[in-house]
Each structure stands twice: as structure tokens, then as C-alpha cells.
């Protein structure tokens, strides 16, 4: 994995060669499918509908949201596992931008996902110890 995983909002500019991945479960309002400003859409890597609704009702609970989202991502056989593996492959091929429609990108699932991917790289770089 390259380690060059960034987060941003839909429509943000990124350097050429960056694979832009929409990581929201819902298709953003007002965006046409033809010519969408991303290369890949991975809705299954986004938080579950119930977790997303909980965080919307408790925006001050980012730490709890983050912990619960990480648990969803690591759930054996969960729908997020295949999408997370696809993200690992994409990040291994070059820079990746995780895109979300959320305004507070640094307090979003995209930021948590970036940290999860960084931790996976750290596990590999120290021989899995």
C-alpha cells in the first residue's frame, strides 16, 4: 500500500493520477451519474444506515461513532469486508482520495476509513507483529 490516502468532499481537486472513491452509502443529490466527479463508488464500505442515523442525531459522539464504525468494518463476513479489500487494492496501486458529501470531512466516516487503511499498512510494514 502506498499510504497516500486522502479525504475530501465531492468536487475537491486532487493531483492527477489520484483514484477518487465515493465512500457514501447514498448517491449525492444533484449529481448525475454520467460525468460524476469520482472514479469508483463503494457504498458498502460506508456506515450502516442505523449507525449513520445515530451519528446524525448525536453529532457530538464522533468517538463513539468511530468505534462503532470500525467494528462494522471488521465484522467477519460483513458487507464492508469486500469493499474494504477493494480499497486496499486501490491504495496499493497509487494515491486514493476518499470522497464524501459530508461537510465536516475530518469528523466523517471517510476520515475513520483513512485511519483504518493507514493502520492496515502499519500492520504489514512491521511484519504483521
Major beta sheet, specifics? 4 strands, parallel
Helix content: 40-55%
Return the string of H and E elements.
Answer: EEEHHHEH
Going by helix content, strand content and strand pairing, the class is alpha/beta
Rg over CA atoms, rounded to whole Å, is 14 Å
Number of helices: 4
- Count the domains: 1
The count of DSSP E runs of length 2 or more, i.e. the number of strands, is 4
Account of the 3D structure:
It is a single chain. By secondary structure, the chain is an alpha/beta fold. It contains four helices and four strands, in the order βββαααβα. The protein has helices spanning about 50-55, 60-75, 80-95, 110-125, and strands at about 5-10, 20, 40, 95-100. A four-stranded parallel β-sheet has the order 1-4-2-3, with helices on one face. Helix 1 (about 50-55) runs antiparallel to helix 2 (about 60-75). The longest helix has 17 residues, at about 110-125. It is globular, with a radius of gyration of 14 Å. The two termini are about 15 Å apart.
